[in-house]
Design brief:
single chain, 353 residues, alpha+beta, six-stranded antiparallel sheet, 27% helix, 41% strand, elongated
Length: 353
Amino acid sequence: MKNKKRLIYWGIPAALLISLGTYYIKNSNAGNTKQDVNIKKAAVLPVSGIIAQYKTNSDGIQANGTLLANEEVDLVAEITGKVVGIYFQEGKAVKKGDMLLKVDDADLQAQLSRSEFQKKLLTEKLERQRILLQRESISREAFDQLQTDYNVLEADIALLKVKISRTEIKAPFDGTMGFRYVSEGSYVQPSSKIARIVDNNVLKFEFSIPERYADKELLGKDVKFNVTGKTQDFTAKVYAIDPMVDVNTRAILLRAKYDNNNHSLLPGMFAQGSLVFDEAKQFLPVPSEAVVPEMDGKRLWVLKNGKARSISVETESRDQKNVSVISGIEPGDTILTGGLMQLRDGASVDVKL
């Protein structure tokens, strides 16, 4: 009976201790399992991506640039004097040779009148001396001196006429006048800006393309472009190619002409376009945000054997959303496009396509 009491007295606490130990071990193992799962999940970074695929585009290559006037000139004064007449209106069309501005030339006109009177007198005297020379009544030296005086006077008259012509500013070509910077009564000096004249009946679209297209037949190719605020597309034709490659951008500069008779476009506008080639062109488009610029070039994150890998690529601009990758990746490669900030080379990733 006594032994039975002892068994009960010590058995119950022992059973409780065993139960508590088993419960602790189970919960501890469960906690470790959860922690391991969480660590494993945290080690795999969630990212988004795309599969690189070729696309075909027959519109050509990107050709962004600026619209230039066919001709434009800043008209400046060539002589010192007071403005006595302005014969153009700002923003109005003028014809080649139209008088635009007149500077006072009263002093020059007076000098010209005096020189012409002297010329008339010398002309009559020279004729009389020629007759006397034929009769050998005067020396050849005296006649030659008079002839020289006459020639010098003619030169002085020609110079005065040149100076008088410089008091008149005429339109060098058909165009539209810009704002004027002088008023009637202003005192101008050589190089004083008068106004600008612009011929925008024809516009020049200036743009550049990568140097690798230098061997293409570019002259005569069409360039389709558009400008901000216009819904329609415009077409220009390449007429000139710069004979040198820009050493900074490694690009070729081209110019194309656009017939702007209706004056719907203005010089200075930025234009987005594409140079049209006859053949279709294949390219690998990649979202712009996937390209990581670095000091030594550009890089992309790609998926290789379940790991994120950073590779060097060469790209070409195409539009506002995508760039064209021309080396570094192949069709079928998985390009990582989102969640790039937390990536490191060799990291495990879970790609959502």
